[in-house]
Write a structure and sequence with these properties.
Length: about 400
């Protein structure tokens, strides 16, 4: 079966490499050979093996009836949306790592796929190489998912790990992550949590079966996390992790991304460097965890190629599975952020100690650094936290993911 790749950047060149290197293995497992007919990119790559199949015109792909499966690894929501839509309308399955597009137009694109007898698959859009979406959508059919706590951004996990273990400066750790090809073109999307927010929106929409848009995901990045926060974390036998937290209760769903203190006895504590993980709690299965490389050329390409193989089997009618949109456009019932409850580590100036004690009441003191008063609050709603913190000079506040 002829396939095409749209985009020859980090992930696109990885898909090209995996399809070539593992050609025989894929053929054996999928029951058919995937032959790369075209690679679309605006640039030229003199001397690169891609040259023989390189095109600058998307119509070469769309108008070739032999091309049945397309990988969209261009990123962005402009041309990527237009080309994906055109490919699906031409009856070609599209497999993508483009979380921005899936989070914003995924439902529409899945419906177009359904109408045209093809598939829109996006395993690589969340958790890089970790099989996460397919297990949730198949292996966990017997469960009602109660909550998911995940580390979904490799770049920020890499930065936080390097800051914690090597005392690296933020900018130094970010430069390393960029150089290794983990970061987004604009790393603000990583650092400010927008990348994790998109992935959270996709996961929450899948588990809820209704749209949880990016606007529904309260998002805080890691740019305010300091070396002093890590000092407190060490005192508490904890690390700082950018967590995606999705909770479902009484027909409502809440989703947020923020830095959390995660203690050593939590499975997510050991997730270091560029690794991602998702700790899922189902009402029947209990806790299960998925772990692996959340970013990088070959891990992400592995997930795209797995989708391409599945789509190819479907297109060749070797498998009966047809696209069923993972979520509908109906808005999920979202828990207002004000109602979400967590405990927090709060640092205030030493002079604010009495005021903080009065405002928060039930607190646990943490041995402070000089000139500060630090404490862990009771589990309280965002609304109650903000009320208590009003008038205090809060140096920093990090939510904690442990109860005692
Ligand atoms: N910039 C993303 C990350 C790439 O660091 O996780 C994978 O989505």
């Amino acid at each position: 079966m002829k396939v095409a790749i749209m985009g020859y950047g980090t992930v696109g060149s990885g898909v090209f490499e995996v399809l070539n290197t593992n050609k025989d293995i894929i053929a054996k497992k999928a029951g058919l050979e995937l032959e790369i007919g075209y690679v679309l990119d605006l640039r030229d790559f003199p001397g690169d093996p891609v040259e023989s199949v390189l095109t600058h015109d998307v119509n070469d792909i769309i108008n070739d009836p032999e091309v049945k499966v397309v990988a969209e690894v261009m990123g962005g929501v402009g041309a990527a949306y237009k080309f994906t839509k055109a490919a699906l309308e031409a009856g070609k399955s599209v497999c993508t790592s483009n979380k921005e597009l899936v989070a914003t137009r995924g439902c529409e694109l899945m419906k177009i796929a359904q109408e045209h007898g093809c598939r829109y698959l996006f395993e690589a859009s969340v958790g890089g190489g970790i099989p996460l979406i397919r297990p949730i959508m198949t292996a966990l059919h017997g469960d009602d998912i109660v909550h998911m706590k995940s580390i979904l951004n490799g770049t920020t996990n890499y930065i936080l790990t390097r800051m914690s273990e090597a005392g690296a400066a933020f900018s130094e750790a970010l430069a390393e992550a960029q150089q290794k090809g983990y970061a987004e073109a604009d790393p603000t999307a990583d650092v400010e949590g927008h990348d994790a927010m998109r992935k959270t929106s996709i996961l929450a929409s899948i588990v809820e079966g209704k749209l949880v848009s990016c606007d529904d995901v309260h998002t805080e990045g890691i740019s305010a996390v300091t070396a002093t926060d890590f000092k407190y974390a060490r005192k508490l036998h904890a690390g700082v992790k950018l967590l995606s937290v999705i909770s479902r209760e009484n027909g409502r769903v809440s989703a947020m991304v923020a830095p959390f203190l995660v203690r050593e006895d939590n499975e997510l504590y050991g997730v270091k460097g560029v690794k991602n993980a998702s700790l899922i709690c189902g009402n029947a299965v209990g806790d299960i965890m998925f772990y692996g490389s959340g970013a990088g050329k070959l891990p992400t390409a592995s997930a795209v190629v797995a989708d391409m193989a599945e789509a190819a089997q479907c297109m060749a009618e070797l498998s009966a599975s047809k696209q069923v949109p993972a979520w509908t456009e109906e808005k999920a019932d979202i828990v207002p952020f004000d109602e979400i409850k967590n405990a927090s580590l709060v640092r205030v100036a030493a002079a604010d100690e009495q005021a903080a004690r009065k405002a928060f009441g039930d607190i646990r003191e943490v041995a402070p650094v000089e000139g500060e008063f630090a404490f862990i609050t009771a589990v309280m709603s965002e609304k109650d936290y903000n009320k208590a913190a009003q008038g205090l000079n809060v140096i920093s506040r990090i939510r904690v993911d442990f109860k005692d």
